[in-house]
Amino acid sequence: MSSKNRNTFSTSFGFVLAAAGSAVGLGNIWRFPYLAAKDGGGLFLVMYLVLAVTFGFALLTTEVAIGRKTKQSPLTAYRELHKKWGWLGKVACIIPMLILPYYCVIGGWVLKYALVFLTGKGAAAAGDGYFTSFITAPYSPIVFTVIFLFLSCFIIYRGVKKGIEALSKILMPVLVVLVIGISVFALTMSRTADDGTLRTGLDGLKIFVIPDLTGITANKFMITLMDAMGQLFYSLSVAMGIMIAYGSYVPNKSNLVKSINRIEIFDTAVAILAGVMIIPTVFVFMGKEGIGASGPGLMFVAMPKIFSQMGFIGNIIGAVFFVMVFFAALTSSISILEAVVSSFMDEFKISRRRSVVIEGVLALVLGVIVCLGYNKLYFELALPNGATAQILDVMDYISNNILMPVVSIGTCILVGWIIKPKSMLDEITRNGESFARKNLYVFMVKFLAPVLLIILFLKSLGVLTF
């Protein structure tokens, strides 16, 4: 696809909403609150905020700048920067190809629960074994996966302006309103526990925002630091090729510094609101120990049980909650798909329609395999980090724990030491913008970010333990 004929976002605000929509996904909603609760509440929050404006900012800025500078997708952008580094683009393209199938499977689960609550049957979803019986069913999970994947493909087929940007301008404001609404409701809740103590949403908020330094050690500090850094990959959608693809659609006249700052603020605010929304709610109904549920257990088991305890209003709140999660999942899914589709278009010079069909079929095949991983193809495998996994977990581990750190480390080496940070700084300030964090950016890309990423990578492989 020629850069002259390349689609672009119509406005900088459209780019910010699309990028924020990509960043605000399932990782923010079901992973961020769990890690915050596990790692000392406010301690994790402080580390996350510091890393967001340093480490995360450097990676996000670099990827967006690479995209706009090259006007290429992740598969071809690295080759455009340096001919010998084209391999990095291939790895960056493999990541979203691995993530999309299982993300659509989980998106199908969310769609299923949204429909259950919208039809007034939320109480059934709170039953013991409901989630397990659903994901192990032979056909139902596949049907919902197909529906979710089709919606994602349809939006991407419509293109940058009519698909990605148009949807983001509608869904993101609605998503923010829903998140804020549920957060306010969570803070106003209260309930008397079985032991007679009164639990309030504000007490749950304290767990989230006030640092718990009880028993803090160097090892615990490092674990929290690594968790916060790992979360940034999910929160900012970096190392997946997404921001390179989206950056390639940013007009040259746009103020890149301002746009990146807005994405940081938007994403961080929603991540924090996700914690405000979930941690106080779980605390009120399940106590501090209940906050330990993570991933599917938090979203599809703990939350429905909580909604069932709210009475009639619980079905309404549950419907609003799962619709909100569905919107978040969909905006992230389309960004993952776009990273692959744009790569196919640039590398093989084929149409958007054909690229969507090819990747849609690939994602469908792998998505069905992921669904079958809970019944006919079920197995258990011990991962290097000590976790027990089946097909979805294996794909997640390879993409998130191995390939994403490799791409980020390679990007830092390429930009920091091969083509030099000045190449990115020139792009960032193309229109004479003031770049206040210029020195911080150079330091992070050349020195600190690569070191932190290598530590994270070695920890993921089980070489380092804390």
UniProtKB/TrEMBL annotation:
Question: What Pfam families does the record tag this protein with?
Answer: SNF
List the record's Gene Ontology CC terms alphabetically: membrane
Sorted UniProt keywords: Membrane, Transmembrane, Transmembrane helix, Transport
Compartments in which it is found: Membrane
* CDD domains associated with the record: SLC6sbd_Tyt1-Like (cd10336)
The way it spans or sits in the membrane comes to: Multi-pass membrane protein
Question: What coarse category fits the chief subcellular location reported for this protein?
Answer: membrane
Q: State the coiled-coil residue ranges.
A: none
Q: Please indicate which superkingdom the organism of origin belongs to.
A: Bacteria
| UniProt KW Repressor keyword | no
Spans traversing the lipid bilayer: 41-66, 87-111, 139-158, 170-189, 232-251, 263-286, 306-336, 356-375, 402-419, 440-458
Listed name of the protein: Sodium:neurotransmitter symporter
Q: Which organism is it from?
A: Treponema saccharophilum DSM 2985
